[in-house]
Amino acid sequence: MSQATHLGFGFVTTTIAELSADPHPVLARLRAEAPLSWVPVLDGWLVTDHALAQRVMRDAATYTVDDPRFSTATVVGPSMLSLDGAEHARHREPYVPPFRPGPVRDHFAGFVTAAVARLLDGLAPAAHAELRADFAGPLAVEVMADALGLTGVDPATVRSWYAALVESVSEVTSGRSPTAAGAAAMAELRARIPLGVEGLTTEEMVANAAVLMFGGIDTTESMVANLVLHLLTHPGVLAEVRADRALVADAIEESLRLEPAASVVDRYATRDVTVGDAHVRAGDLVRVSIAGANRDPAVFTDPDTFDLRRPNARANLSFALGPHFCLGARLARAEAEIAVDGLLDRFPALRLDRPVTPEGLVFRKPPELPVSW
């Protein structure tokens, strides 16, 4: 589609580097000018306001994930992540029960608490650590390995499979072929994953296990790292949370709002549709900026401020909406709460060693989180 086609419809010039480093000023400008803007560097439309983001994510008939350009499906095969309608439900429903309130409370809470304690035991003697690589990342991998039933598989092995799959998806996104390492990781996962999910073939079970890894590793690592960073860079908030641990849940929601771990979700228009002055054509990429929607001043007062007592912080869209609402949202919140409680209990003098800021086009997190105690 030519750039000229979109002039007058929120046509915006930016760069991948700008959107990866600090997208919020650009997103604010786009949101003020046009809630749906054509962004050439993305070769697609970008949704930046809260109301339209909800509309797009809820309307799977008009804005679908089921498109050949969806790179994850090229690597792992069709799954709940890349299907809509009845097929999406068939793939997703068997995986819902483990993430309901009962299992999260009765199994995962205890598992996460034990994993947090073990990881912190290993870190404590050094009096310093890089918390993203040494704590948030390993915790996310251990929890997801348990959720997938990968008993007896070393977390480092699971991490290596995941890294290979991410690299393969990145290659496909860049217009190249899936990698041999990615195919090998899928074969290893197929050999180790428990099978027998009713209504799904073996290949479908493996594909869904792979996308659960995508949903539960990078995003949860980012969520925990961003939360700790927000607390350590807001001393007043940190003091309140230390004094009243019930506020951890509020800190999680505000951290998710301010810097969502997954900052965008992609959809493809199934038909021509007009949104305001924008004319979206069938097949166009429509990218929903969760980061933009979460700072919409029409919904969130003073949206760039971390407000521990923001009354509507849970209106954030960080776990998406509609049929693709994050399956593990409840577990992710529990994991973040237990992780922060553990850190604050174990290290009362926890502090950030040097300034860091989140970065990333899709998964936003600090490149490192160096701390001392």
From TrEMBL:
It comes from the Bacteria. It holds the Pfam family p450. Belongs to the cytochrome P450 family. This is Pulcherriminic acid synthase. SUPFAM superfamilies: Cytochrome P450. GO terms for molecular function: heme binding; iron ion binding; monooxygenase activity; oxidoreductase activity, acting on paired donors, with incorporation or reduction of molecular oxygen. PANTHER family: P450, PUTATIVE (EUROFUNG)-RELATED (PTHR46696), PULCHERRIMINIC ACID SYNTHASE (PTHR46696:SF3).
